[in-house]
Amino acid sequence: MVATGDQAGRKAWDNIIFPEPDSPAIKIKGKTKHFLHCMGLPFDGDLSGDTDLWIGKAIKIKVHHEKYLDKYNQQKMSAKVSEYVLDEDNQEIADASSVPF
Fold first, then answer.
1. Could you read off the pLDDT tens digit of each residue along the chain, which spans 101 residues?
2. Does residue 43 sit within a domain?
3. Is this model's pTM higher than 0.90 or not?
4. Using CA atoms, how far apart are residues 42 and 68, in angstroms rounded to an integer?
5. How far apart are CA 66 and CA 77, in angstroms?
6. Residue 5: inside a domain, yes or no?
7. What pLDDT is recorded for position 91?
8. Which pLDDT score, from 0 to 100, does residue 96 have?
9. For position 69, what pLDDT does the model report?
């Protein structure tokens, strides 16, 4: 959920994959490692898919907008994560109960 600014309260979604070493998806392991690094979590060696560690963590992202047609053929716009931004001052959210998921 966006925490600050004029878009506060909105949500952006992305998929994080923890590929098996022999999987063709191993080529995107760098994205997963960068995501974990930006979250302030261990990102070298064996990667943990323990999403409980993500609760209460903040991460900076950049988004891009894509237009699409919905099932009624109406034009809509969707915000998608285009980049995770490494922020050395990344702080945990003070009250994790405020995170809606």
1. 788 778 888 887 889 999 888 888 888 899 999 999 998 888 888 787 889 988 888 888 888 889 999 999 999 998 889 999 998 765 555 444 444 44
2. yes
3. no
4. 36
5. 6
6. no
7. 52
8. 45
9. 97
61 HSE (CA, 13 A, CB side): 22
Identity of the amino acid at 82: S
Residue range(s) defining the domain that contains residue 54: 24-93
Between the CA of residue 78 and those of 14, 16, 21, 66, 75, what are the distances in Å?
Answer: 12, 18, 32, 5, 10
Q: Which residue has the tokens 């994790």?
A: 96
Count of domains for the chain: 1
Return the SS3 of 85.
Answer: strand
The rounded distance, in Å, linking the Cα atoms of 25 and 88 is: 28
Residue 47 lies in a domain: yes
DSSP character at residue 28: G
Q: Which of 20, 10, 26 is nearest to 80 (CA)?
A: 10
Residue 101 in domain: no
CA angle 5, 14, 60 (to 5 degrees): 35
